């Protein structure tokens, strides 16, 4: 196992992590921004008003993009596990 292989695997893992997390993080950040603007305009400072819409948005994104996320992770893990014999031997 060379250091180049380890760095490549680490880079691929971080890329996969970002690719999987980005849809959920993007939507939750956008909903949080909209709720914050709404709270600033109406001067309503309720903690649940900030939390519940973000939670609902995250659940919706997981429901829509969940199958893609799981299939991407399974493909990455399959490639990683199949590469073990070539690395060890």
Class based on secondary structure composition and strand pairing: mainly alpha
Number of strands: 0
How many structurally independent domains?
1
Characterize the largest beta sheet: strand count, sense, and whether it forms a barrel.
Answer: none
Estimated helix fraction: over 70%
- Give me the number of helical elements: 3
How far apart are the termini? 9 Å
Low-confidence stretches: none
Taken from the alpha-carbon principal axes, the silhouette is elongated
Radius of gyration: 19 Å
The oligomeric state is single chain
Describe the structure in your own words.
It is found in: Cell membrane; Bacterial flagellum basal body. Keywords: Bacterial flagellum, Cell membrane, Cell projection, Cilium, Flagellum, Membrane, Transmembrane, Transmembrane helix. InterPro entries: Bac_export_3, FliQ. The chain has 89 residues and is mainly α. It has one domain. Helices cover 91% and strands 0% of the residues. It is built from three helices and no strands. The longest helix is centred in the first third of the chain and has 40 residues.
What features would you highlight for this structure?
89 residues, mainly alpha, 3 helices, 91% helix, elongated
Question: How are the SSEs ordered, and which strands pair?
Answer:
Layout: H1 3-42, H2 47-82, H3 84-88
Protein name: Flagellar biosynthetic protein FliQ
Pfam families: Bac_export_3
Keywords: Bacterial flagellum, Cell membrane, Cell projection, Cilium, Flagellum, Membrane, Transmembrane, Transmembrane helix
